[in-house]
Amino acid sequence: MWIEIIIAVIGISVAAKILPSFVLMSRFAYPNAKFSAISNAYIKEKEVARLLDSKNLEDLKNNVVSRDFVLEGNSAEEIQKSIDRAMVKIIRMAKDDSPPAVRDFYDAYLQRMDGENIKKAIREVMEGKEVGEYVMFSEEGNNLMEKIKRAEREELEEILRKEGFNISLDMSQESIEREIDRVMILRMAEAKMPKSCVKARDKFAGIMVDVINLKTLLRGKHYGKKEIEKNLIEGGWEISEWKMKELLKIDSVAEIISMLEGTSYMPYLRQAITDYEKKGVMALENALDKYMIKAAGEISNECPMGIGPGIRFMVEKEYEARNLKAIAKAIEADMREEAWDVVVVV
Predict the structure, then answer these.
(1) Under DSSP, is residue 155 helix (H, G, I), strand (E, B) or coil?
(2) Which of 15, 69, 103, 171 yields a CA-CA distance of 20 to 30 A from 232?
(3) Percentage with pLDDT > 70 across the chain
(4) Count of domains in the chain?
């Protein structure tokens, strides 16, 4: 009798620990299957080439056949804004379809996407210009943008500090932009997550830090900038603080890349060396963007029953949107060949 009671208690305890995990995984089943079924055509070289062959913007709009992206407008700027509006719907769809336990992460991702427009708005205020009209991805980003629009230059610093950005108007534009990146990534890294998803979240945020830091380092060395260290972000995934300090001592871009032997970034940067010699540092930044897409796919495979497929989906859609915006601009300016230096294809 006592033995049966003990076995029953043990069984209940085990079930209490295991059952929530099974319930959570079942809640990921539908959105993850949906993410896997949605095409990522506009990061494929063949599809990008087809779109760049469009005769004009109207032809481009007709050539983009997608449930996710519906291009609208008569100018590249209008089309780019329609692409941003589509991205808002895409990420919010992913968030709404996903379990409530990970929705904070999607909110933080939307805020990070607002970062680029926040940077532009700050630059405009500091230069005494009128702030443009931007499509914002999150409610928090929209509220901050409204404050920036109403702000005088001398009020900007206090507004940004209240929002959590350690920014002084005496800082360089690049330092301001890195601080915005740092805060936005930190919000993603600290977003509430089930334990089973924490590693995927941390790896994603850490790789994003590595990629931003490598771009900052390589661009800085290419242009001979000083005090690059001030514009680096802490918390990388593969590149430790001591490793970055060693890289900072080297002036040769090629030597820096060779020093990355053993990291996941090295093969992508090594393949881009020839293009770098012809086209400059943008070729290396493009290579790191390609790695970002690959890394998101790896995270998806490592966490297939959790947030992994959602991360992959958002990253691919973000680069699709970036490509479509670049293509629209290239067609309007009749600079199709130059667009290949900007688009990211896998």
Answers:
(1) helix
(2) 103
(3) 93
(4) 2
Same domain, 102 and 203: no
Q: What is the H or E stretch that residue 253 is in?
A: helix 253-259
Cα distances from 66 to residues 25, 48, 117, 178, in angstroms, run 29, 14, 25, 34
Please, are residues 84 and 300 in contact by the beta-carbon 8 Å criterion?
no
Res. 61: pLDDT tops 90: yes
Q: What is the pTM of this model?
A: 0.91
Co-location of 203 and 186 in the same domain: no
43 has pLDDT over 70:
yes
Q: Kindly report, residue by residue over 213-264, the tens digit of the pLDDT.
A: 999 999 999 999 988 999 999 999 999 999 999 999 999 999 999 999 999 9
Distance CA(297)–CA(215), nearest Å, equals: 21
φ and ψ of 338, to 5 deg: -65, -25
**24 domain-assigned:** no
- In the chain, the percentage of residues whose pLDDT exceeds 90 is 88
Residues 85, 184, single domain; the answer is yes
Six-digit token pair at 147?
Answer: 């404050």
Tell whether 236 and 318 lie within a shared domain: yes
pLDDT at 6 over 90: no
CA 57 to chain centre: 27
| 225 and 133 inside one domain | no
Q: Indicate whether 83 and 179 sit together in one domain.
A: yes
Exposure pattern of 173-211 as b/e (b: 16+ CB <10 Å)? eeebbbbbbbbbbbbbbebebbebbbbbbebbbbbbbbb
Q: Which of 271, 201, 207, 273 is nearest to 239 (CA)?
A: 207
Residue 283 and residue 204 share a domain: yes
Q: Is residue 181 part of a domain?
A: yes
Q: What is the number of other CB atoms lying within 10 angstroms of the CB of residue 49?
A: 13
Helical (H) or strand (E) element with 286: helix 282-302
The residue segments making up the domain with residue 184 are 76-192
pLDDT, mean over the chain? 92
Q: In the listed set 172, 192, 212, which residue is the last one of a domain according to the structure?
A: 192
**CA–CA distance, 127 with 273 (Å, rounded to integer):** 36
Domain end point (choices 164, 192, 220): 192
Within this chain, do residues 221 and 287 fall inside the same structural domain, yes or no? Answer: yes
Residue 299, amino acid: I
